[in-house]
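Morning!

This is the sequence you dropped in the shared folder:
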Amino acid sequence: AAALDHFDRALTLLGGSRGRWVSAARAMVASSRTMLLWELGERDRAEATMAELAATPPGAWYELRRRAVRLLRAYRLDDDRDLPDDDTLIDWAKGLLRRNHPFPDMALLAWVFERRGDADMVALLLGELAQRLPVPYERLVLMYPSLDPWLGPRLADLPAEPEL
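The structure's back. Tokens below.
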């Protein structure tokens, strides 16, 4: 609840301010707030904020934020039908593979591919994710505890990295 209050206050402070950085800050706060609502299981409130996100400016960074929210929404609803076709999701995966810190997006995308029966994509994405976690998984998953029942066992089952 405290985090939501902080997000609401930030959005109020940004209010009618203008400028490129203000737009970016507003989009970051709005998408983070929406993801928190989904993570908290506040479905109605989260759905109500989806239109805000659709109205964020065009551009690659904004699109990454919108995709992250769409992936978390699908995961929390246990329904991937509103997500794009596999070819589009493969393009999303290629984009994530170019990023240094792709959590939670890469995990959520692996979940979608598992639902759709693509074990090769799941293995690729989880293998890459395991190598790119910026902090230990146990700390990182505190931000997205709903992912742990699905992601934790899969990461634990990955083969150990060979020692060089």
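Headline: The CA atoms of residues 25 and 106 lie 23 Å apart.

More detail when I'm at my desk.
O.
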